[in-house]
């Protein structure tokens, strides 16, 4: 039986990305979308973020869909 309610992908922004974009979390109503198309956010450089989908590392061409959680985080540095 197919679900009839909207299919949502949850996006969580960590670190200074949340400050740049102005939210820590949002949802997108889509059936399927590439990570690259989902993460094109103002102020977030595409060469920089670490992307996790459901807790696992993701690539730009990976496709996400209903009930997936995408975490966008700045690179971790130290020294």
Structural summary, described in words:
- The chain is mainly beta and 79 residues long.
- It has a single domain, classed as Ubiquitin-like (UB roll) (Roll).
- It is 14% helix and 35% strand.
- The chain has a five-stranded mixed sheet. Strands 3-6 form a two-stranded antiparallel ribbon.
- The chain is globular and about 45 Å long.
How many structurally independent domains?
Answer: 1
CATH class: Alpha Beta
Largest sheet: 5 strands, mixed
Strand coverage percent: 35-45%
What number is the mean pLDDT? 87
Separation, N- and C-terminal Cα atoms = 53 Å
CATH hierarchy: architecture: Roll
Tally of alpha and pi helices: 2
What order do the strands of the largest sheet run in, or round the barrel if closed? 2-1-7-4-5
Features of the shown structure:
79 residues, 35% strand, mainly beta, 7 strands, single chain, two-stranded antiparallel ribbon, Ubiquitin-like (UB roll), five-stranded mixed beta sheet, 2 helices
């Amino acid at each position: 039986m197919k679900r009839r309610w909207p299919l949502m992908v949850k996006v969580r922004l960590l670190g200074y990305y949340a400050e740049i974009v102005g939210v820590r979390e949002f949802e997108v109503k889509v059936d399927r979308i590439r990570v690259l198309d989902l993460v094109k956010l103002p102020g977030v450089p595409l060469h920089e973020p670490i992307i996790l989908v459901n807790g696992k590392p993701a690539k730009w061409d990976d496709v996400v869909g209903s009930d997936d959680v995408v975490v966008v985080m700045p690179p971790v540095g130290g020294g």
